[in-house]
Calcium channel protein
Amino acid sequence: MKGMLRITWLLLLCFSQVHAATTQEDDATAAKALLEKALAYYQSNGDKAFAAFSRQGEFVDHDRYVFVVDTHGVLLASGGPSSALIGRDVSEVLGPDLRTSFQNALKVPEGQGIQQADYRWQNWNDGKVERKHVFYQRVGERILAVGYYLPRATPEQARALRNKAADALLKDEAGTLKAINSLQGGFLQDDLYVFVVDLGTQRYVAHGTNLRLINTDFGKIKDPDGKPVGEPILKLMADQDQGEYTYRWKNPVTDKVENKHAYLRKVGHFMVAVGYYSP
C-alpha cells in the first residue's frame, strides 16, 4: 500500500512539474505570437494602430496585451490597466528593474528583432505585484511589447534548490557559502533563495538576499509581527535531519510580507533552508 501511495505521489509530482513548464511555455508562445501580430498590424497601419492596441479586442489575450512606448518614455498605447497613463512620460514611474529594461531597450538598434526582459508589475487579475516576462521590438521611435506573468515558485522547486545547496556544501563548503553570499551559483532564483545557519554557533553564515544577517544570532530572529522564527526552527531541527516550518516573511520579489513555507536540512553542522511564498 505504501509503495502504491509513493508511486501515485511521484506521478502527481511529475505531472505538476510538466504542467507548470508547459503552461509557461504556452504563455511565452502566445505572448510572442501576439507581439508578432501587433508588429505586422503596425507595419500596415502606422500610428493609427494605437487605437486598436488600446481597446479590448484582438490585441488583448487574457492578461496578455500590447503596449507601446516611444524612445522618450511616453506611453502611446496599452490594452491593459496602464492605459490610464497613455500620453504620459512613464519612464520615471517604472520600478527600477522595468526602468533598466526600458533603458536597455533603447540601446538596441532597430532591426535586431524581438528582444526579451524580466520585470515586476501589478497583475490586474489579482492586484498582486508579480514577475513578468516581456517580448519587445523597436520599430523606428516606437517600442512595441507584450508580456506575460510568470508562475510563483513551487514547493518542488524550493526542495530542489535546498537539495542543490546541501549537495554543494558537502562537496565544497567554503566555495558554496561564498557563492550563496555573492548571489552566484544559481542559489537565488527569483523569490527562492538559500540561507545557511551554523548549528554550533546558531548564527547565519550565508543568506541569499540579505547579507546584513550574516553572523547574527538566528535564534533571536522574529517575523515582522514579533513572533519567534529562529528559536522554534532550531528546536525542530535539534533531533531530526530534515524538517519544514511555516512563518511570515518579506518576499524579496513582491516586497510584501507573505506566508513562507521553509524546507530544512542538516548538512554536517549546518542547517540549509529554502522556502517558497504564498499570498
